[in-house]
Design brief:
This protein is α/β, with parallel strands linked by helices and about 425 residues long. The chain folds into three domains: about 10-195, 3-Layer(aba) Sandwich (Rossmann fold); about 200-320, no CATH class; about 325-419, Arc Repressor Mutant, subunit A. It contains 18 helices and eleven strands. The protein has a five-stranded parallel sheet, with helices on both faces. It has a three-stranded antiparallel sheet with strand order 6-7-8, with no helix packed on it. A three-stranded antiparallel sheet has the order 9-11-10. Helix 5 (about 110-125) runs parallel beside helix 6 (about 145-160). The radius of gyration is 23 Å and the shape is globular.
């Protein structure tokens, strides 16, 4: 029995697309159609030894993959990202017995110094016969300046040995490729990954239906596809809604579903959204929009007749139908979609979330979190372990209600709420 929501055939197809540049010794920018759930798929494809072996064969052990999650650095200076890259590479080198020196006592300062140290570690790895792949995910929320700074640093690293050092950069937003990538010296391959086709989406639906003990009728399946199209994020949320409601529900009025659709729709490019909205409002596509329309067919956003999934129609025609995280002016309670979070969280968890919300996209220190937990007894009871467990418990409860915001950990600094 497959324990993954993706079929073996689909993973094989994705693997073939993603590993091909690596086999050729080239870097790649990969744009995933929004709603794909790319981070989980990247983890599966690059962390599963059987899949790696299937595509890289006997050369599998030659490659060292340095993974960086861009979500953690979207609101901070790029120096933090390069420091994390250095630390990740250093741990890999120690694990593979390439490098065994004790961690230096002095902190890395500028990006230039950090990049030079990374290059030094790369050279040691190459001398041992390895090839390095810097796998960067989720840089969609980077400013243009930060993205360019990231690419410049990576170019400097790659140029130190272009034959043995490569980058694999993954995004959802096409705009970041259009505005930044064309000017980057890293550009060798630009790859588009479409949403799964209908057959794979059916596999995905049945996987979670079986997991959650749901029985779906053909009419329910058709309704889900009409509302969500081939967007796995929306398909999964639709199933969750159906499974938690005894009575039939109208998917087009579900706040969490509309919010997830809004988040995914925002990641399409300006040109793509223009053609979608023109088609919806005029039932016509302009001649200069044909290219974008065909790209959306390839991405499986819509079919060859340009039918727009109903959820996207609703949020485009009535943006006020989308409810986000907000304070209710009357009750003074924090509301997500249609849920009063005071009824879903403990007092401490709720106060922490309110604090994070008031400083959204800004770092809340661990001391501030500790004050929510222990109040005036904070100094006596302070525990890093207890803080992390409380945040972990909060994340788990929020995930259960399909919370679309993320609580990010900023190493040695604290936490921030992001979307």
């Amino acid at each position: 029995m497959n324990i993954l929501p993706s079929s073996a055939k689909y993973l094989q197809t994705l693997g073939k697309i993603l590993y091909e540049p690596i086999q050729r010794g080239e870097s790649a920018f990969v744009r995933w159609a929004p709603g794909h759930g790319k981070t989980a798929l990247i983890s599966t494809l690059f962390d599963t030894s059987l899949i790696l072996k299937e595509h890289l064969g006997v050369f599998q052990k030659r490659y060292l993959f340095v993974r960086i999650d861009g979500y953690l650095f979207s609101s901070g200076p790029m120096s933090e990202l390069f420091h994390s890259m250095h630390d990740a590479l250093r741990e890999i080198c120690i694990t593979n017995k390439i490098y065994s020196k004790p961690k230096p006592s002095s902190q890395l300062t500028s990006i230039i110094i950090t990049v030079k140290t990374i290059i030094s570690l790369c050279q040691k790895s190459i001398q041992k016969g390895y090839e390095l792949i810097f796998l960067i995910d989720a840089i969609d929320e980077f400013s243009k300046e930060n993205a360019q700074e990231l690419f410049r640093g990576l170019e400097y690293i790659v140029e130190s040995n272009r034959e043995r050092i490569h980058t694999h950069i993954h995004v959802n937003k096409k705009d970041i490729i259009d505005t930044c990538v064309s000017q980057s010296g890293l550009i060798q391959n630009i790859i588009s990954i479409p949403l799964p086709d209908t057959q794979e989406c059916l596999y995905f639906l049945h996987f979670f239906a079986n997991k959650w003990n749901l029985k779906l009728s053909d009419d329910q399946i058709n309704t889900i596809f009409e509302a969500c199209g081939n967007d796995p994020v929306l398909l999964k949320e639709s199933l969750r809604i159906i499974g938690t409601n005894k009575e039939p529900v109208n998917l087009l009025t579900q706040p969490t579903l509309l919010l997830k659709a809004k988040i995914n729709y925002a990641q399409y490019s300006i040109a793509e959204k223009d053609v979608i909205e023109t088609k919806l409002k005029t039932n016509y596509i302009l001649p200069n929009q044909k290219k974008s329309a065909h790209e959306l067919v390839f991405l499986h956003f819509w079919d060859k007749t340009y039918n727009i999934p109903l959820l996207f129609q609703r949020l485009i025609l009535d943006s006020s139908s989308v409810k986000e995280l907000r304070f209710n002016k009357e009750t003074k309670h924090l509301i997500f979609a249609d849920l009063d979070l005071t009824k879903k969280l403990s007092r401490t968890e709720y106060e922490i979330l309110v604090l994070l919300y008031k400083k959204i996209r800004k770092i809340v220190s661990r001391d501030e979190i500790a004050l929510c937990i222990w109040r005036e007894k904070m100094i006596d009871k302070y525990s890093e372990w207890a803080i992390d467990k409380t945040i972990s418990r909060l994340r788990g409860k929020l995930e259960h209600i399909a919370f679309t915001y993320k609580i990010l950990t900023k190493k040695k600094e604290g936490f921030l709420l992001d979307i």
